[in-house]
Amino acid sequence: MSYPQLTDKPGALATAATIREGRLSVAEAVDAAIVRIEQLDGAINALAAPNFEAAYAEARALDAAGPRADQPLFGVPMTIKESFDVAGLPTTFGHLTHKDTPAPRDAALVARLKAAGAVIIGKTNVPPDLTDWQSANPVYGRTTNPHNAARSPGGSSGGSAAAVASGMVPCDFGTDIGGSVRVPAHFCGVWGHKTTWGVISKAGHDNPAQSRAPGFVAAHDGALSIAGPLARNAGDLAVLTQVGAQYPLARTPKPLKECRLLAITHHPVCPLDASVAEPTEAALATLVHAGVAIDRTSDLLPNLAWQHAAYLKMMNVVMARGAPAPNGKQASAADWFDLLDAQAEAIARWDALFAHYDFVLAPPAPVLAVPHDEKPVFRGTLLINGTQQPGGTGLAWAGLATFPNLPATVLPIGSGHYLGSELPCGMQVIGPRWADLDCIAAAEAIGIILHS
Prior knowledge:
With 452 residues, the protein is α+β, with helices and mostly antiparallel strands. The protein has 13 helices and 15 strands. The strands form 4 sheets. An 8-stranded mixed sheet has the order 6-8-7-14-15-11-9-10. The chain has a 3-stranded mixed sheet with strand order 1-3-2. Strands 4-5 form a two-stranded antiparallel sheet. Strand 9, helix 9 (274-289) and strand 10 (293-295) form a beta-alpha-beta unit.
């Protein structure tokens, strides 16, 4: 059932181990990653802003200092989403206005990654304002899916997923409010993790249209949006999540066959295309055959149509920062408090569900990698089982975990055929709030069963 990876290059932990064992220097690891980018990125265009000169300097400094026990990513060359500040590089959010303005300092997450020994060799591509399941903008152009150049790698962390899937780097960090980590992982056949809201600080991840206003100070993380890693295996995801976390994350070991799982394969807002439904059903059947208990329905599940409607309203207010909608209507303070009440109700309902179930399995998106289009996905349509559906309905599957602030890990489960092409397919493993490491471990166990 596995979809073949495009690279046999080692992951983050394997690279760090090789360096610690003295079989590779940090400078050699960084140089090898830069060479891969130079060889591969012409066709993919995942890298937005290179950081090669600074990366070489950091590599030499790390080689001179040697690894510390608190540096699990020692010497690992990696990239990060363009929307995170890296000192000396521009943060544009895809807008030409900001292409020549370097960030004065590192984002909080970048600082944590560097402290853990990682070397940031560049930033990866995004759509304008991080609002599309494609990654194309006037500053850096269009990123293609490394599995099929005619398809999108996803968005808004599409450059991140493409860089990891192609083997340019072992890992990257993106952000997610509408599936922006999970959908690129799904489209590109890699692993991605949406963290519990608030686990990883997004300080230094601010749209320059606001952050460069006089007196701007980002005092809090925006509602719903999170930072989350992408990698080619579960172990790397777990370490990246722990490195980024500003709070300790507990791990509750429990064999998968002792867990009770609920699978969601029907959503009242958006159907699944057969290209996603078929590999999903095949994966669920394999798990059941292996002795994993999976329910297909539950009265504990919140009203998904109600949840999706509230999620869309909250996300639109957040993305617009309260500005009027295209119809001219502007959310009031009372509207916002109503949305907070709805979110609290959704959180309580999911908490009650997770008192009975360990994890929920669901697709990350209703389709596989979409063809390139000049129109953003959410302003157009998605072809689902031969019928055009409004693009925004596809957010229903990502919103399952986003609105109630839940962690969700995406793993590759196989492939499907969509619009004439065979493409990777993923599955998200959703768990209780703060159970990030358990979600990743359960996804790893599922992957072992599916790919054995």
